[in-house]
Amino acid sequence: MTTFLWILLSGIAMTAIALVGGLTLVLRERTLARLLLPLVAFAAGSLIGGALFHMLPVALGRLPAMTTFGLVAVGYVVFFALEQFLHWHHCHRAGASCRQPLTYLVLIGDALHNFLGGLSIAGVFLVDVRLGLAAWVAAALHEVPQELGDFGVLVHGGWKPRAALLFNLLSGSTFLVGGLIAHAVAQRVDVTWLVPLAAGNFIYIGASDLVPEVNKSHALGPSLVHFLAFAAGLALLLALALLGSGAAH
What we know:
This protein has one domain (3-244). It contains nine helices and no strands. The chain starts with a helix and ends with a helix. The chain has helices spanning 3-16, 29-62, 65-86, 100-127, 129-156, 161-172, 174-186, 194-214, 220-248.
């Protein structure tokens, strides 16, 4: 399968994940509350694991160390700025109170986030398909709890469920747009720099956005569950890295 097809299919699949928000209409609120934070912790571990075990080793093998870490810093700062200027917050906790105007900011922020993610992950695919798959898995694991949270925010903010699903899907489609643009640009310029940029994005989302969400419980039981879910996300991406290096040899 060609790299273009990998980028196209991964973009379509990532867009489809936006429909997972509909599960909030089926699951009980208590069940959703129990599942959501462990999923967020697992996603945080997988994002950080994807950056540490997949993207950074490849970037350091192709770019100077200072260039690599400089681009990681840029990727981190870009997503920090995105949240600051759009006042975008993941309302991961079920029942979180959000005003109607925030719902539009959630959609705008999600669309920009997905566009940048599609641009970055497509760049990773262009460098190495196996690396791209690992990055896509990590990003997809993050998208599930995010889309559940975003859909809940839209409905709580006054949107009808069908409209919320449709606009969530539209904001998710920008991932595919970003991927296709990266593929087109790659014909003219080297996109290796997108790998450490994506690593910075992943580290920011995992460490600065998701970990604080699951680090608020003071009870031993939930804290242990969240820690184990986070460690499982790290372990999954480490295992994928080890399997990939073993297959390469």
